[in-house]
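so i finally got all the pieces together for this one. its three components total, 895 residues if u count the protein bits. some of the lines might not be protein, just check the labels. i wanna see the whole assembly predicted at once instead of chain by chain like last time, that was a mess tbh
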Amino acid sequence: MSGPLLQVRDLSVDYLIDKGAFRAVKNVSFDIGRSELFGLAGESGCGKSTIAYAITRLAKAPAWVAGGEILFDGQDLLKLTEVAMQKVRWSRIGMVFQSAMNSLNPLMRVEDQFHDVLRRHNGFTREQSRARAEAMFKLVGVPVNRLRDYPHQFSGGMRQRIVIAICLALEPALIIMDEPTTALDVVVQREILEQVIDLQRSLGFSVLFITHDLHLMSQLCNRIGVMLKGELVEVGDVKQVSQAPKHEYTRKLWASIPQLPARAREAV
Amino acid sequence: MRFGLQLLFRQKKAVAGFIIIATLALMAMFAPILAPNDPAARVGRSHQPPTVSHYFGTTKMGRDVYSQFVWGARPSLAVGFATGLAITAIGTVIGLIAGYFGGRIDGTLDLATNAVLVIPNIPLLILLASFAGTVGPLAIMTIIALTSWPWGARMTRAQTMALRNREFITAARMVGEPSWRIIFVEILPNLVPLIGINIVGSIIYAIVAQTTLEYLGFGDPLNVTWGTMLYNAQNSSAIIVGAWWDIGAPALGIALVGLGLALLNFTFDEIANPQLRSGPALSRWLRLTRLRKSELEAAR
Amino acid sequence: MRIPLRRLGVYFVAFLFAIIVNFTLPRLMPGSPVDSMIAQLGPRATPAAIEAIKARFGAVQQPIWLQFVDYLKGLATFDLGVSVKYYPQTVTQVLARSAGWTALLVSCAIIFSLCVGVSLGAVAAWRRGGRFDAFVSPFSVVLIAIPPVIIALATLFTFGVTLRWFPVGYAYNPDLDPGFNLTFLGSVFWHAIMPVLTLSPYMIGEFQTTMRSSMISVLGEDYVTMGRAKGLSETAVMFSYAARNAMLPVLTNLALMLGAVFGGSIVTEIVFNYPGLGLTLFTASVARDYPVIQGQLLLMTLATLGANLLVDIVYGIVDPRIREERA
């Protein structure tokens, strides 16, 4: 299979309000290649999360996809029926949400939360699911003997790892991460991100990484897109966008990252 | 606050509810004009069906059901509303004190609230009423109010506690505002939507309790209320005999009040809890989503 | 026991409150209750019986606290006194006869209403703003506001008297002998339909409203979105992810409603002449049979407390987070 994994073409998303609509995403187009880490940056409310949810067609009311195409492996996701879309979800495109604190069903044991998705897509039995769950736990660094615990019994960082583990269980080709570590403290943030990079290198999935932390993104991603008020103002290779930005806003964003004073920089 | 009122009246349900209650209240107020004759007077033969001269027929004792209905609205509505307000007042005050002061005061009040909450109301009411003998509306009001405040107290306490921890209250305390002022001037206005729900819910409950007690015979049989009308109708076997108007008129009145209050309640709930609101945007979204779904299915 | 001490404390205080009310009320109105009961007994009023009544209701010279101790001692041995109307039957005997019928009615009504109300609430929330929601939800609020008396009378009149679909009274056909055979059980079932259907609308309305609000909150949670993101079927998400979590506040609501349910059952039994605790209470209050009335309050309070305790236990089983807290 050649060609980009994901092609977003002229995507527009509206928020329906009492009289009329507010266009939150305006004609956005970008590609994500295979095994590529693509970052989408921008301030709050610029529409980046909206795009993330639109790709998997999980946009909640009142968000409404007004136009465009989302081609995944050549297939337009917007033209699929709900049932067909359900097949694509998780098995080909996975999602990691902002606060894993709330992403796990509080009333289900963790191993059951693996089992329901594995049974749905692959027809696994309980033993098969458990085996896969154990493998995933090992991969992300969560003690295997805790499979039968409930989400509230884990710390925030652990929960995020569990969500990533469940995400990888079906070996999707694309993982969308919406501000995956904003809710965690800096040290844990670092650990988890490094783990994700490792996994990405070994398993080869693509990542759509959404964050407002430009600095982080520049360290992790291959390509970056910058959004401003619903429009994609710049997109390109991370080196080019960071060192020679074409758009005024991008320049301002880079400039806003606080720099260490010259002496401290030398010492580092 | 003003926004709340605007929202209230834009909702058709609230307007409908308000109209129903207002009509019944006006009817009660203008009783002397609408039904000039003494409702206790015997004016016809026993158990006559509705006719032109007696719109709602007659009771077993030959009394005009229509007159009774119109005059009976007065105590039924008045006691119901007054009791509802009393219940709300007691509950709000207790909830405020418990929620604001916390500590041991809260511990005691909360324990008392939960304990009274658990006790089944109607058996307790029946017990109190049977020891007191037949009671007039005022006694009924007192008994009901004294046993049903916990529900509102709990809600008020929870909300007060949430507000108490907000920054503006902390600021007020640091500036040295006296407690009573904080409670009445800072906290209370924020509780208005909650109190609205409380009032409507309490009135609904009060009317149910009052009707039940009077139906069981604890009301003053000489006082014409909708509840005692039911009691008398029941005792004269109106249903078995087929005199549906005898039971139907008071039942209709009570059901209408319930309906009106319920419609108001629904809207108060939506004001207090914005998550529950379903505006036109949501309906449009649902419609479009359904449309798109069927298009996609068809294209398969 | 997994139930926190605090909760048990509340139940204890409530029960204490009922006991104290029972004890003090007749003593607040000296003379008349005792006199009326003695008058009621008429020719059956032996000196022993009169003494017993006076002792129980405080028309004696004993200091109050001693009376209270005696009263408590009596309660501990399930001695609730002797009925005046059904003399010489004890209150316990009178109540035991009718308790079963009320239990049948109330439990059937609760189970039925829970199933219907929760389903309606879940669907209304899932298809929020649609036609189902626009009709069912306001209707549920209306159901809560209509007194059970009215519903009972309307049901009796429409289905019992006019349409004659269902029998108008009693727990079973009086011509039958009680027994575990199909005819008897069938008759019990048939006679229970109208009373259960009368008790249900209020509960259905409450459950629908609570479930709908709860579900709307839950549907906004991240784990529900993740459930859908996992590609699970809409039904699976609605049940395992949304409804399961939304049920918890409904359970709490059930506990709060129990008192009102017993109240409604009293009126229902009276309208349908159903031989449960409610009818017994009514005939007792008409006859001023104070021992039975008091015993009734205690029994119903105990039943409500017991049911509350049951709901607490179930909640603890269903929600693993609470299990942790109490362990």
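The CA atoms of residues 281 and 296 of chain C lie 7 Å apart.
The radius of gyration of chain C is 24 Å.
anyway lmk what u think
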